[in-house]
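Meet today's protein:

…
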Amino acid sequence: MSIATTPQKNLVRVLGWRRLSVGLVAALLGSLLLLPNWGTPYWSLLSRLLFIAFVLLLVFGLFERWPVHLPRWLARWVLQVAAVACAVPFAAWLAYTLVTIGNSTLWWTERSYLIGFATMTFLGLLASPWIALVALLRQIKGEARNQALAFELERSEYEREALGARMKLLQAQVEPHFLFNTLANVRELVDAGSPRASAVLSNLIAYLRAAVPRVHDSTHTLRQEFELLRAYLEVMQMRMPDRLQFTLYADDEALPLFCPPMALLTLVENAVRHGIDPSEAGGRIEVRVRVRDGRCRAEVIDTGLGLAQADGGSGVGLANLRERLTLAFGGDAQLHLNQLQPQGVCADIEFPARSTPT
């Protein structure tokens, strides 16, 4: 397959259909204007005007690219308009010379030809600079519109990259928070000489193998999030088997939906850390996800100490989660914490039910 060279591309630009159509329309209008007082056949008049229009298009396109560098005091559009005006007499002279080849006398010695030449030259000088200016204005407007679209596209790309980088940064802040807490729990078991330490560590390793490849996944789904929740809660249940129970439920249509990585895990970890773990009696965690009217609602309910008695409040983790939800759903997501009676907390997230982020 051949590739068009630069001169070929320039020729296509100079003689593009839009420019040729402008020349054709100008020639037709000029022929209709001159026809009532024209003595020769109409095709002769039209052919001369078309030839003049073609030459002026070539001149207009030539000075659009050449010379490459102009003096600062000379604008290119001024050069193009002036060149088109100066080319009008030459184009008319050349048109008459070509159509009178073979005549026994020179055309400028005949009065009818001179009148026709003068009329076409006058009409060309009157109309061609204005046509060139209109063409330049349309060209400038089109280039400005294309440049604005290019800038808008580039800005959107930068914004998308910035949002992605911010999301990854926030997710990276979640990972150490969870890992340090879990490793601290493992250390306590090891220090206490608990035989469960090895099993908890094995479960933690299995969890990390599942979680680490996903924390930066922009296509993370609720199905994957539930796998992380189950792995995390199994690790926590091994650490406090008599004080933690949990259930997980999600509508079938909710599982393929997009969910920011570790969003529900942040709520579950918060419930364990601030509700279940400090309570002597422990408690139960229930996670429910339902889809209604194009919205997805996820609830994390615990029967721990509750908001009033929890140490540390919502903390950095929930503030981090709110920002991640804003980045993922463009502000179309809500996070609420509600005190339950006689004790416990219900944390719920509501966001659009879709397969990809904003």
The CA atoms of residues 275 and 304 lie 4 Å apart. The domain at 194-352 is CATH 3.30.565.10 (Heat Shock Protein 90). Residues 1-5 have pLDDT under 50 and may be disordered. The first helix runs from residue 6 to 14.
